[in-house]
Amino acid sequence: MSSVNQKELLVFDIDPASPQYKSIVGSMDLGTRETFGVYIDPLDTAGSRAYVPLWAARKVLEINLDDPTTPVLSRTFAVEQNPQTVAFLDAQWMVVANDLGETLSLIDRVSGEVKSIPVDFAPDAGGLDVSSVAFDPGSSRLYALLSGMNAVAAYDVDLAANPPTFTLVGRLPTGWWPSGIVVHPNGDLTVTNLRGRPIGVYEQDEKYGGAGGIAGHKFMRGSVEQIAKPADVELQAGVMDVELSLSVAEYEGYPEVTCSGGGMDFPVPPTNTMGPSKAIDRIIFIIRENKTFDAIFGDLPGVEGDPKYTLKETTEDMDKVWVNMRKLAQTFTNSDSFYNVAVQSTQGHQWVTYGRTTDFCERTWSAEARPVPLCGVGEAGKPDSGSLFDWMQNNNVKYDILGQIVGSPKKLPTDYNPVDVSYPGGPFQSISYPDNEKACHVAGRIRVRCDLGNFVLMTLPNDHTVGVSPENPTPETMVAVNDEATGMVIDALSHSPYWASSLVVITEDDPQQGGDHIDYHRTPLVLISPWVKRGYVSKTHIDMASIYKLFAHVLGLPYPNVQVAKAGLPLDMFTSTPDYTPFEYTPKVWPIGCGTGAKEVEKRVTRSWDFSYVDAQEGLGEQVARWMRGKQLESLPPELEAQVALREARKAAGLPPPKEDDDDDDDGDEW
To answer: Which listed site, 62, 191, 219, 420, has its alpha carbon 20 to 30 Å from 17?
Structure first.
């Protein structure tokens, strides 16, 4: 029996009668930890062949186990991006699911030849996430999970042909993010779903836990579904079921563009193929950190909110801490039905910079402790189709990157550098560096240098906060500085020549801090432009894919993936009658200061965290809520005491945070 552990292939003795039962009898250095699993060839009666897919290397290794004490690499098969599971068709042929390759690889284990089999889903490409395969020898049918579509596809395999041929029979919808599939001897299927189901109402417990690490266990419980052996007619009907489940934009009630008489004067074109907007030619995408909708907007008039979830207990205090963000939301247009699909920042920044997640990202952040950020950064976590920035570059849109590394473009333009290396705090996201200095820098680019691309992504992450202790700014200080910076950027833009044709999109990368009476995923979203409705609250159900679709329509770009192509658009947030009135920001009014009033218990909790793993701090959201609501702990509940003690011990030993606290951090100050 074999398994992957870090960079090693370990061979165990699993004979209960052996004196070495459960012992490691051999090992082999694979050269990389980015391995998906190990598959023993069930048709090799000697049990001497194992296959190991290597994610980033785009290879499948064949390992000879004739001498289990000394595994030997016998062959290497070149496949496509992120090979994952393996299905054995017969003694000659096997199939590999290439998750980010969006293909299947058919491998001839006799000749060593490899053939690529496309996974059909015309006309949309990308975002399918072909994550797992399983073969039913009784019906000669191959099943492939399409995680990005929440579906399983079925193919009839003709093994009499050389090479075998694959005919798509149909598809079936599954639960949220299917991750594993097994075919039973009678042809029935078992499918595991990594995300499982929506989270629903989130009552943030101030006393314990956290939307830091806790989200990895309590919010990612998954599900298992049993599917009776599907008949052809079910699979054929399932094609439409999957299509309907994806086609959010086609749901009844979504707003449409209708212009009677004259020409099209609406600022958002109804399609992405009729050219860019004639009214808007510049988009600024501002990413802040970690808040639910109710946490900062739950008490605003006109929204579907619940004041009991706001982070400060009175509207007066909320207006002091979030003076500009709340003013922007009420002056321009905000959505109370925007849902961030992410749970933590690893997924959040993937969605922000790719308009999708990936199976690599979903699996690794929720299941493994990783000190190196790879989701959206490393080779295994970056789809070949590219990021938001590649999308812009490939379509000749001048863009700027301010404080973001996730989704970094494959190749920089030759005529300018979109990465602003002078961005205060550095070109990577810096949570602890004051956001108002970043805002001043951007204001200078806008109003003095007149140097701003047609698409700008900037991070303003101070509202993440860094815990409660005398050595740290208070959470209110960090939030107020972030809020001031947000207002300063809009003030500068709205007093510049760019204003008349600009659109600003402001949101959080994920919803980690605060509770929500609708669903944990509900996140603030504010659109700012002369071309948006003033004082408007949108009820249109949208998510990050919808924001990407908005970018595509405004700038006249092809859709980057199936999620974006099928998303709904918040067209109700826009108007054909512009209002060019500028915005006047309000300097921060909440007193700034350090956490000198922190109780010893809270200081101990903060000291136990390791902020080089920024979102690995289980309980940070709860601590922020306790502090802001004046409910600091006097003592640690037993379970929290155990967690803090474990973190302290690991930190003292120079070890990373415990596995259950780690989220494959993508947004720290250090990289």
So the answer is: 62
Q: What is the pLDDT confidence band of residue 548, given thresholds at 50, 70 and 90?
A: very high
Helices (H), ranges, 332-460? 345-354, 359-367, 388-394, 435-447
413 and 466 belong to one structural domain: yes
User: Distance between CA atoms of 497 and 499, rounded to whole angstroms?
Assistant: 6
Q: What is the pTM of this model?
A: 0.93
In a domain, 287, yes or no: yes
Helix (H) or strand (E) holding 59: strand 59-64
What whole-number distance in Å separates Cα of residue 399 and Cα of residue 661? 35
Nearest CA among 334, 272, 331, 345 for reference residue 123: 272
Counting the structural domains of the chain, the total is 2
Sheet holding 39-40, edge to edge: 39-40, 49-54, 59-64, 72-78
182 three-state secondary structure: strand
Beta strands in 223-381 (DSSP E): 223-227, 282-288, 333-335, 338-339
The Cα 132–Cα 347 span in angstroms is 20
- In whole angstroms, give the CA distance from residue 22 to residue 434: 53
| Residue of 409, 417, 394, 411 lying closest to 560 (CA atoms) | 394
**CA distance from start to end of the chain:** 36
Identify the domain containing residue 350 by its residue range: 266-573
In a domain, 538, yes or no: yes
- d(CA 89, CA 41) in angstroms, rounded, equals 10
Q: Tell me what the mean pLDDT of segment 56-84 comes to.
A: 94
Residues, the chain: 671
Q: Per the domain annotation, does 256 fall within a domain?
A: no
> Which residue, among 63, 69, 62, 54, has the nearest Cα to 20 in the 3D structure?
69
pLDDT in tens, 238-260: 999 999 999 999 998 899 888 76
Helix (H) or strand (E) holding 39: strand 39-40
Retrieve residue 69's tokens.
């004490």
